[in-house]
Amino acid sequence: MVELPDFAPSALLVLGIETSCDETAAAVVARNAEGAGRILSNVVLSQFDSHAIYGGVVPEIAARAHTECLDLLVQKALDEAGVSLTDLSAVAASAGPGLIGGLIVGATSGKALALATGIPFLAINHLEAHALTAGLTDAIRPPYLMLLVSGGHTQILWVEGVGRYRRLATTIDDALGEAFDKTAKLLGLPMPGGPSVEKAALNGNPRRFNLPRPMIGREDPHFSFAGLKTAVRHAAAKISPLSEQDIADLCASFQAAVCDSVADRVRLAIRSVLPLLPEGTPRNFVAAGGVAANKALRSTLVGISDEFGFAFRAPPLELCTDNGAMIAWAGAERLALGLVDGLDSPVKPRWPLDPDAAKAAGAGVKA
Amino acid sequence: MNILSLDTCFDACSAAAGRGLRTLTPGIAFAFEPMQTGHAERLLPMIATVMTEAGLEFRSLDRIALTYGPGTFTGTRISVSAARALALATGAEFVAISSLRLMAMSARIPAAPTRRIAIATDARRGEVYFEVFDRHSMQTVVEAQCATISAAAKLLGQGPVVIAGNGAELLATEANRGGAEATAILPDLLPDALDMLFPACELPVSRTVKPLYLRAPDAKPPAPSPFIGAGA
């Protein structure tokens, strides 16, 4: 039994495993009886270099890499936390949504660790883990509004409680991170595209190219970025070959269009949840996902939050992007409610947080 | 010696457990289920069952025997991931056997008296996972590889050979067209974890195991941006 005397004598200790995309991650998190969380270890191994030459994540390469390093990362997470498997209360693994090859590696490993240690297994929805992270980092309790923007997901969620989410908006085509990546690729910038585009945009003129602001003013609450990406392509083709300044201006114009579009969608979402918040209830708006690190977008979101009297929170970057701590924390939250899973539980490459949400009009299979 | 064995490489999921000293009697339990998908859901419950039926505690495991490929990429990863995680929790050592060798071991008696035995299993795209063994010594005669039927037929060379596995019939036909004396047997042969239990007492152990894919991932670098000049 691990002693955390300054925390709580009977804390739940959960190992979290994350393998849904191109980060292999493991972490140990404690949750005390009051529902407060503490990260005891959080190790992430990015496979970035393995995928870089392909201009994007190759699922088979990702799955192979997870297989060869996950057990080493789990051991490292246990060592750094100063605990052994027998100290744990449960093992949690992300079981979807994501790339099936990696999910199977993580879930199979998690089940095997749980079985051999004689503790429960928890199959965690990766999106739920992102959504609940604010409880770990900022002790924010539901309800709150959540914007999740990553390479795989673009959603606005109303977090009502553990296991209870209303999806207010999703993308009908590309995820926002995907749009950044595709724009970067188009302009010959290195991966990952988000930071590359953001960096180039610093020296660019956001008004040089009049790019479309997708979905603005539409009552339909969703996102769309495919058209914007195509508009960047057309603008680039018109003035090709591109100078460094052209690229900077295209990046700045793209980012400005993204911010305007997201701002419009977030305002719509906030207006839709205001009636659900009785007078005096805390108004919290949480952003997560790798794209939430974009400074221009962040300042846009802070502005909107101020407009509506919401407190804006974004977990630190290492907890915004994929990590094991969020999986462990979601596992601890679910374990506290007795929501454990069987060793026969499947992985789900598609796993909407809000299964009742109506399909977004025009949405493809990824939405 | 307490041993758990498992396989998920092809169209079956199997696990077996046994305890004992030199031999594995009395407690042996095993399970084998044909399946094309769903190994990830079935394997761990199956392991739980055979361990309980064999009266074994995980912490008392000495060895984990597994097929580490070749097979479906996902299936190969399921057995390797499960084995590595179980080893992390128990401190057990690995006995890693290739799926082709395990099948060759099972086909030894049916293949008699021919000296050479080959395993050929469908690797899709007109290719087979393929390896040739000496039936007596079980030494590898032709290294494991992923090859087209015609390339595998050439590698078989001349002289009598028995081929087992679901690619055997195709390969034997092709080889015989080139003048070989190939006989196909056991078209439904699949690896079975039970067949690993006894050999695992005697085979060398390792501290880690990596998947054997025999085939590179499908991936090629994208074309460069058409909008950037040569100097950019």
Automatic annotation (TrEMBL), chain A:
Binding site for Fe cation: 126, 130, 322
GO molecular function: iron ion binding; tRNA N(6)-L-threonylcarbamoyladenine synthase activity
Gene Ontology BP annotations: tRNA threonylcarbamoyladenosine modification
Bound cofactor: record note: Binds 1 Fe(2+) ion per subunit.
Pfam families according to UniProt: TsaD
Sequence positions that bind substrate: 148-152, 181, 194, 198, 294
Cofactor(s) the protein needs: Fe(2+)
InterPro entries: ATPase_NBD (IPR043129), Gcp-like_dom (IPR000905), KAE1/TsaD (IPR017861), TsaD (IPR022450)
HAMAP family xref list: TsaD
Role played: Required for the formation of a threonylcarbamoyl group on adenosine at position 37 (t(6)A37) in tRNAs that read codons beginning with adenine. Is involved in the transfer of the threonylcarbamoyl moiety of threonylcarbamoyl-AMP (TC-AMP) to the N6 group of A37, together with TsaE and TsaB. TsaD likely plays a direct catalytic role in this reaction.
Designated name of the protein: tRNA N6-adenosine threonylcarbamoyltransferase
Organism for this UniProt entry: Hyphomicrobium facile
Gene that this polypeptide is encoded by: tsaD
UniProtKB/TrEMBL annotation, chain B:
InterPro entries in the record: ATPase_NBD, Gcp-like_dom, T6A_TsaB
Residues annotated as domain Gcp-like: 37-156
GO cellular component, one term: cytosol
Domain of life: Bacteria
SUPFAM superfamilies registered for this protein in UniProt: Actin-like ATPase domain
One biological process term in Gene Ontology: tRNA threonylcarbamoyladenosine modification
Listed PANTHER family: TRNA N6-ADENOSINE THREONYLCARBAMOYLTRANSFERASE, TRNA THREONYLCARBAMOYLADENOSINE BIOSYNTHESIS PROTEIN TSAB
Protein name listed in UniProt: tRNA threonylcarbamoyladenosine biosynthesis protein TsaB
Annotated source species: Hyphomicrobium facile
